[in-house]
Write a structure and sequence with these properties.
The chain is mainly alpha-helical. It has 2 domains: about 115-485, no CATH class; about 505-610, no CATH class. The relative contact order is 0.10. Helix content is about 60%, strand content about 5%. It is built from 24 helices and 7 strands. It is globular, with a radius of gyration of 25 Å. A 7-stranded mixed sheet has the order 1-2-4-3-5-7-6. Helix 2 packs antiparallel against helix 5, helix 5 runs antiparallel to helix 6 and helix 8 (about 165-185) packs parallel to helix 10 (about 210-225).
């Protein structure tokens, strides 16, 4: 026993990482083949196979498989293709309906595509640990990885065959390894930055904002804290240019369609992240020129000191404003629980301007700001939220050894939220997943700072008690949402509110109920959303238009998300197909029901049709 105690103490970091990754896999493997979300079938059945077919046929025009582009997803999940003769589900499938699906085969196919994502993200967690340790310390690195690995939304994303599932991990790893490179000067971190950034760009074009922010990080180290990096400014600028350019070159190797002369629109979407605006590139070039000027020109020390003071005041003001806005948002949600932007608007209207269809008016700038910040504040586990607030507040009001890192990464977070607003995109937890590891980093700093205060004032036991409470809280967040991680919201969100609809969760459970009914194979089911038909052994459809003489549903499977889609045209669907689901949504006597994470508003219900 003494031998094992000494061995664990000697390899403490390895032991802690092993425990964290074991917890990550314990939660991540739950339910991994027992749901299907929107658009996943496109990736599994069409896009991923198409990417490998393009290389097999040496047809570079086919390597552009989607506007995400989702190539990293193809590279990671692609090996699952070797396990299946076909990834099309083993059932008779037509436009909008399925018949005779095999639930076991459906689970096997989707689990095989999801498991590699879970494994790759675990490797990114290890990379994040070494990167954060390089520019902070071991405790903050462990805390960052632990809080990231146990974040319910990141666990949920790691189970989904979608480009977002790899953006949060590769994108945050790129930022952390770049900071590690500046701090340590080690070339290995520069290589890892290029690799992670390439992976992020291959996941989603939106990752280009990371490239645009790299000069800001270098400028911050120049102006706010010159002691942050041991490298000469000129070397930093040259490294910045190489690290920024290399991912674009590597991207072209994996998506060679970019070289096709006729692919003008593709190149434009890629370089503008689908916004068709070149203004970010002008800002990026201006930042590069400013960075080069500060590093190459001999600027008087007096001016540098003045610039440092002004920059520090501005950074503290922005951080203080963010902190105040976050706290006030929590207060306002409880004071004004019926504010129409929360009770009337669906959570995924995508374009902000679409709010007028639900509210009868356009959103004000204040309302847009509130909505863009909302999912970040309420999707973070409570320990991450509170300790990140502490770290940011301490950096604003008191000297902090990690002030530069906090201000830079908080600046990136704010720029990201503002960019969504200007791009007319309403954020959801999935869209801002890249920010979750950053706030886990803030929280890890906050935990170490609070721990130092407790240890000094009360002794080591108080610090140990705090760590246990934080660990139990983080594990509790994951347990409370298991297995529906992507629908997690923290305890400061009013109980009557939800952050996101079920998005396919509960469909497997509904199908399991239906499959247990007598003569299930001869039943016909209509579902208002994905994730049911693929697991049902009878006849099942999601189409809104069909011949009522040919298809007469025996059961409806209804969801909150489907209700929003269906009710907007309920009269049309009844006229065309005889669908009368609108009569059932508000009924209180379903044959079977499930409330996702105990939220009454986030339901999946099964009703037998009245005859």
């Amino acid at each position: 026993m003494k031998y094992f105690s000494v061995l664990i103490k000697k390899h403490q970091v390895l032991t802690l990482l092993t425990i964290i990754l074991a917890a990550y896999f314990f939660f991540g493997l739950q339910h991994i083949g027992s749901f299907i979300t929107a658009d996943e079938h496109y990736w599994v059945e069409e896009r991923i196979p198409r990417y490998f077919d393009a290389w097999s046929d040496l047809d570079v025009r086919k390597t552009d498989i989607n506007d995400k582009p989702g190539v990293s997803l193809s590279l990671v999940s692609g090996p699952a293709l070797l396990l299946h003769d076909t990834t099309t589900l083993d059932c008779q499938e037509k436009e909008g309906w399925f018949s005779g699906c095999d639930p076991t085969e459906t689970s096997r196919i989707y689990a095989s595509f999801r498991l590699p994502i879970l494994l790759v993200n675990a490797l990114f967690l290890v990379l994040i640990f070494f990167a954060v340790r390089a520019f902070t310390d071991r405790n903050i690195a462990i805390g960052t990885v632990a809080l990231t690995a146990l974040s319910p939304h990141l666990l949920g994303l790691s189970q989904i065959v979608n480009p977002d599932s790899l953006l949060w991990s590769s994108g945050s790893a790129a930022i952390f390894t770049f900071l590690a490179f500046l701090r340590s000067g080690k070339r290995s971190f520069a290589i890892w930055t290029v690799a992670a950034l390439t992976m992020a760009l291959l996941s989603k074009y939106a990752a280009i904002m990371i490239v645009f922010f790299l000069p800001v990080i270098v400028l911050g180290s120049f102006i706010i804290d010159r002691s942050f990096s041991p490298m000469r400014p000129r070397v930093q600028v040259i490294s910045l240019l190489v690290i920024s350019a290399a991912p674009f070159l590597l991207f072209a190797l994996f998506v060679p369609e970019i070289f096709v002369p006729a692919a003008t629109k593709f190149r434009e979407n890629y370089l503008t992240a689908g916004t068709d605006s070149w203004l970010p590139w002008l800002a990026y070039i201006a930042l590069l020129l400013l960075t080069a000027a500060i590093s190459l020109l001999r600027i008087p020390q007096k001016r540098l000191v003045s610039a440092s003071r002004i920059s520090l005041v501005a950074a503290r003001a922005f951080a203080g404003t963010f902190l105040l806005a976050s706290v006030m948002l929590v207060v306002v949600r409880h004071i004004l629980p019926t504010w129409d932007i929360f009770t009337v608007l669906p959570f995924d209207i995508k374009d902000i301007t679409n709010a007028r269809y639900f509210l009868g008016r356009y959103l004000s700038p204040l309302e847009i700001a509130v909505l863009e910040l909302h999912p970040l504040v309420f999707a973070l586990p409570i320990a991450t939220l509170v300790f990140s607030w502490f770290a940011i507040g301490r950096a604003v009001f008191l000297p902090s050894a990690h002030r530069l890192s906090i201000f830079l990464l908080l600046g990136f977070s704010l720029v990201s939220l503002v960019a969504f607003g200007f791009s007319n995109v309403l954020t959801t937890p999935r869209y801002i997943s890249l920010l979750f590891p950053i706030f886990a980093f803030f929280a890890a700093i906050g935990i170490t700072e609070v721990g130092a205060i407790l240890r000094k004032k009360y002794g080591a036991w108080a610090y140990s008690v705090m760590i246990v409470i934080v660990a139990l809280s983080s594990i509790g967040s994951a347990f409370s949402s298991k297995p529906f991680y992507a629908n997690f919201d923290n305890i400061v969100l009013p109980k009557s509110s939800i952050l996101t609809h079920s998005w396919g969760y509960g469909g497997y459970e509904a199908a399991r109920y239906l499959n247990a009914l007598p003569d299930a194979k001869n039943l016909t089911v209509w579902s208002d959303y994905y994730g049911v038909c693929e697991f049902f052994v009878g006849r099942c459809l999601t189409a809104y238009t069909f011949d009522p003489n040919d298809v007469r549903p025996d059961y409806y499977v209804l969801t909150r998300r489907g209700q929003i889609r269906y009710m907007s045209r309920a009269d049309r669907w009844e006229e065309l197909s005889g669908l009368v689901a609108y009569r059932y949504y508000d009924r209180t006597n379903p044959d079977w029901s499930l409330e996702i994470n105990g939220q009454e508003e986030n339901f999946v219900k099964v009703f037998r049709l009245d005859r």
